[in-house]
Amino acid sequence: MSSSELADARLSALIAHLYDAALDSALWPGMAARTAQALDSTSTVIKLHGEGARVDLLECTDNLNVAERDRAWAEDWHRRDLWVERSVAHGLSRVITDEDLVTPEEQAHSGFYQEWLRHLDIHHMLGAVFPTADGTLGVLGIHRPRSAGAYTGVERSKVALLLPHLQRALRLGQHLSGMSRAHAAALQALDRIDTGVVVVDGRCRVLQTSAMADRLLRENTGLSAVCGHLRAQPPALHDTLSRRVRAAVNTARGHPADSATMLAIPRPGRLPLTVEITPLRPSMPAFGDPGPAALVFIRDPEAPVDQQALRALYGLTRTEAAVAGALAQGRSPEQIADRLGIGLATVRSHLKRILAKTGTHRQAEAVALLARSV
């Protein structure tokens, strides 16, 4: 393979790696070094310049890293990057070199060169400033020392080929990062609420569960996961569950069906679980999304109340929080006294203090507040 063919192969591999890194951020480290190697250079920086002089270094070669004690100094020069300022005036998404932006005399006498570039052994630059998806300015800077010689038209053409792929990869990465944050926030929110959430397809096959749903399905025989499928007992109730799941999935497909969405799952000697089934429309049907599904919300009226949260919200003592938590579960003062091993009069005394601290006046009012506040 000739040197020209080897250079072209490196550039092609770099472009392919850009898209892989957009899909998997773990592949970004080393991107700058790959870029420098593909352009016969010693250093590369990829960064974002945003509002308020904010600069985010996405990736740079190791020789551009500075000691911790010099971090503020380096950040200041990144904000006052002379080449970036001149490139914006020169035109966005235009491939430029240092020779397009400053004369040799101006560069040699600038503080940017004297204090910053000389420290990094940088003299020649090849790159571009370009818009990104979130309104910030992307910066690609490729550098080498004076002894390596100025960049040629061939190298400028290579960056012109690389640049649109870098822009697309960054936009894709930013978009997927936003989706990932939204997905993570949704999962964390589901794990914080006291309702179990199960995603199922039209055959009741379990696609995803929240932490609360996992616990409820393990602890209850009336509603459980059997061989990867959501199943209710007795069989007649499972038939009803299946019909309502199919109806929800059909609605998600755009064919509204039976609007009944609620079910009660009986439990011997205990309050029933309540189940709500709603449609879940596909978000990206063209890219492998499993298609329409149903969300199954499961609530246990006997689920323990977060007593620590009650203490933080209302300034309750440990015992008052235990009484309040039992009240929120629908237990009577007599049941609470028996459960906690204290006298009924003591429970009533705690209840008076709970009413005062929560600003309520009746036991039923306090129960509603406590049950809904955590």
Automatic annotation (TrEMBL):
InterPro entries reported in the protein's UniProt record: Sig_transdc_resp-reg_C-effctor, Tscrpt_reg_LuxR_C, WalR-like, WH-like_DNA-bd_sf
Identify the keywords attached in UniProt to this record, alphabetized.
DNA-binding
Q: The HTH luxR-type domain covers which part of the protein?
A: 309-374
Which superkingdom? Bacteria
For this protein, the record's PROSITE patterns field holds: HTH_LUXR_2
Cross-referenced CDD domains? LuxR_C_like (cd06170)
Keyword ATP-binding found: no
Keyword RNA-binding present in the record's keywords: the answer is: no
Which BP terms from GO are recorded? Answer: regulation of DNA-templated transcription
- Give an example GO molecular function: DNA binding
Q: Which PANTHER family match?
A: TWO-COMPONENT RESPONSE REGULATOR
Protein name per the record: Transcriptional regulator, LuxR family protein
